[in-house]
Specification:
This protein has a domain of 83 residues. It is an all-beta fold.
Length: 331
C-alpha cells in the first residue's frame, strides 16, 4: 500500500509577478526604479522572490506595501523569502546611485507558496522578542513523527545617516544588528552590508530547532534609531545550508521511503541522506546507506530491507530548496 503526502501545497501556489524586462535609473537619491503594481493575498502567505541587478555602484531595496524585505548593493542574482499577512500590497523596487553607475534591474519574479506544518511571524517592524512553536502532529503521519524544523529569520535594516552592520558572534561594529535564538547569540547565515549606501542592508539566519517546543528569536540593535523589518518562517519541509532531520522514522520493516526535493527560492544543490553519523566517521560514503544529491527536482527512495528503520535518520540540506512530497510503500 502506497501512502503519500504533498507537503508543498501546489494547489494554492502562484507565480504573481514574472517580468523579464530590464529597467534602469540614474539618480543619487532613493526612488522607484520600477513599480510592479499590486498583489492581493487572501490569506497570510510565504512570498518567494528572485531578481537580477547590474553594476556595482548602485543600491536596491524591495518594498512590499510599507515594509521592506530585502536590500542589496553588489551586482548579481538575489533570492529570498518573507511571510506576509493577507491583504493588498504594492510591490516596488527602489534604487539609488552611490557612484557613477546607472542602476539596472531585470528578471523579477515574486510568488506565494504554502507548506504543511508551518508557523510564522508576519513581516513587521521589529519591536519585541518573537516566539514560535511547530506543533507535533497528532495523530502521527505514516512515516513516524516530526522531529525538527528549519527556522528562517529574514531581516532588512536601515540606519538614518549611518551604515548598518550585521554582527556575527564575536563582531563589534558601529550600528550593529545581532540575532539571538533561545537566548544565545548566533551568527547570520548570510548578510549583505551596503558600504556605499550607508543606509540599507539585509541578512538571514537559518537554524534547526525541535518541534513541540517554543523557540524565541530576538534582535539587538546597537543604535536605537536603526529600524529593523523582520519575518520568521518555521517549517520542517524547508531546506537550508545546514543539516536537518525533519522526522523520526517509524514504519514497517521492508517498506520503501520516498522523498521529493525541489527548488523554492533558489536552485542550488540539494542532498538527501539515509543513515547515521558513526562513532568514528569516514565521510558520507560510510555514514549513509543511501544518498541523493543534485539540482532541479530531486527524487530519493530507499527500501529498508536489512537496515532497521528506527536506528537511522533522514538528513536533508540544500539552501533555497524544500521538500515537496513524502511517500511510503508500506509492506
Amino acid at each position: 500500500m502506497v501512502l503519500a503526502e504533498q507537503v508543498r501545497d501546489l494547489s494554492s501556489e502562484q507565480n504573481l509577478i514574472n517580468d523579464t524586462t530590464a529597467y534602469t535609473r540614474n539618480d543619487a537619491a532613493w526612488g522607484t526604479i520600477h513599480d510592479y503594481g499590486n498583489i492581493t493575498l487572501t490569506v497570510d502567505s510565504l512570498l518567494v522572490f528572485k531578481f537580477d541587478v547590474g553594476l556595482v555602484q548602485s543600491c536596491y531595496r524591495l518594498k512590499v506595501g510599507t515594509l521592506y524585505i530585502h536590500g542589496c548593493y553588489v551586482a548579481g542574482t538575489y533570492t529570498g523569502l518573507a511571510f506576509v499577512a493577507a491583504g493588498t500590497y504594492d510591490v516596488k523596487m527602489e534604487q539609488k546611485n552611490v557612484g557613477a553607475d546607472t542602476g539596472s534591474l531585470s528578471n523579477f519574479q515574486l510568488g506565494k507558496a504554502k507548506f504543511s506544518d508551518t508557523k510564522n511571524s508576519n513581516l513587521a517592524v521589529y519591536s519585541t522578542q518573537i516566539s514560535l512553536t511547530i506543533a507535533q502532529r497528532s495523530p502521527p503521519s505514516f512515516f513516524g513523527t516530526l522531529k525538527n524544523a528549519i527556522f528562517a529569520i529574514m531581516v532588512w535594516a536601515y540606519t538614518p545617516g549611518g551604515q548598518t552592520n550585521f554582527e556575527n558572534v564575536g563582531d563589534s561594529y558601529t550600528n550593529g544588528v545581532s540575532v539571538a535564538v533561545d537566548g544565545y547569540q548566533v551568527s547570520w547565515t548570510g548578510r549583505i552590508h551596503d558600504p556605499g549606501s550607508n543606509e540599507t542592508a539585509s541578512a538571514y539566519c537559518y537554524r534547526t530547532k525541535s518541534v513541540g517546543s517554543a523557540h524565541t528569536i530576538e534582535i539587538t540593535k546597537d543604535n536605537a534609531n536603526t529600524v529593523v523589518h523582520i519575518s520568521v518562517f518555521a517549517c520542517p519541509w524547508l531546506l537550508a545550508g545546514i543539516d536537518n532531520e525533519p522526522m523520526t522514522l517509524n514504519f514497517a520493516q521492508g517498506s520503501t521511503l520516498y522523498l521529493v526535493l525541489e527548488p523554492l527560492n533558489a536552485d542550488n544543490a540539494k542532498t538527501s541522506e539515509i543513515g547515521k553519523l558513526r562513532a568514528v566517521s569516514y565521510g558520507d560514503t560510510t555514514d549513509f546507506y543511501s544518498t541523493a544529491s543534485g539540482t532541479g527536482i530531486l527524487s530519493h527512495s530507499y527500501t529498508f530491507e536489512l537496515v532497521d528503520v528506527t536506528s537511522v535518520s533522514v538528513i536533508l540540506s540544500g539552501l533555497g530548496g524544500c521538500v515537496s512530497m513524502v511517500g511510503l510503500d508500506e509492506r
